[in-house]
Amino acid sequence: MRIREVGIVGYRSLRALRFPAGPLTVFVGANGVGKSNLYRSLQLLQGSAAGSLARELAAEGGMQSALWAGRRRGDQPVRIKLDVEIGDDAACFAYAVEAGLVPPTGAAFQFEQQVKEETLVLRTGRRPLPLLERRGPRASVTDEGGRRQALGGALLASETALGAIRDTAHHPEIDLVRRTMLDWRFYHDLRSDRASPLRQPCLAVTTPTLSSDGADLAAVFATLVHIRQDTADLDAVIDDAFPGARLIVPVPERTASFGLVFPDYPKRVFEAAELSDGTLRYLALAGALLGYRLPGFVALNEPEASLHPDLLEPLARMIVRAARRSQIWVVTHSQPLAQALAREGGVTPRTVIKRAGETWIEGLRLGGDFLDDEEEESEEA
């Protein structure tokens, strides 16, 4: 199920924003305009599904750091609201969570978030069906027979109902939404320094999807080479970036490893520990985007970091190739990469700006659509 729309209210530099998401979405903008907050909002939604939203916000410095810091109306509650629509035209799930400050008598730590409200609604073209509703510590769910029932026990202020439901057999739609959100993958910490896990051999375990830190990159390559026995796409993107180079993946024993052979040194295998930062990071992105099994959603935060400018065009082609198998978000401050993605993928990069202190997206209308989308529809008509 693809992400159709995202809404963010009251989070850091995002006062109120709602926008659609396509198969490939590209956000580009200068440093400090709030691009990463767009990316981070989906990580928080995933944390809600995992039951770790409180921990995620605490890691940011607590609610005092995560809340919108600008002016607000005095009659509005001080809250962060995140919502997402996933699915297709036939069936769409809308999930929303609101977190606010702990009241003086609340059973939570001083700067911990308190979940105020949660909803999950199924829309099928008929009357919307509420699957989950939460107000304060109490929540109710709709079972597979359409019956409403209370979710057993009171929820802690730091808990999300979506993460707390364990009876998946009687709530298959809720479980489907949660599993979909847990499957999302975020890549923003693919380190390439000398101590990077990318440079180390890893345990030889069949690995269809790269971990968020890339620590199992060698196992991802070994799975493609020795389990799937199909590296056509991988070979193509490596040759595109490093003409004539070949990926070498020995048959794993206890651990898996990899290296590159370059045309200038045809008899020399350069192990992962020897590769340049840019070469290694490009290979890590290849592992993220061309694995045996891609998640339904992949987000890349500044994937151009450490890459030579000559690698931006091959990177764009690799991202577009991956967007045929998965929904991709790219957050970048590189105009050349954004322009290459526009040429290769036929997408319109969305420019993120600061407007009166808040993060905004150029061309976005208050209704939650982009001006050029309407123009495209008129041309098709």
TrEMBL record:
Q: What range(s) does the ATPase AAA-type core domain occupy?
A: 24-336
Name of the protein described by the UniProt record = AAA family ATPase
Q: Which SUPFAM superfamilies match?
A: P-loop containing nucleoside triphosphate hydrolases (SSF52540)
Stored Pfam families? AAA_21
Tree of life domain: Bacteria
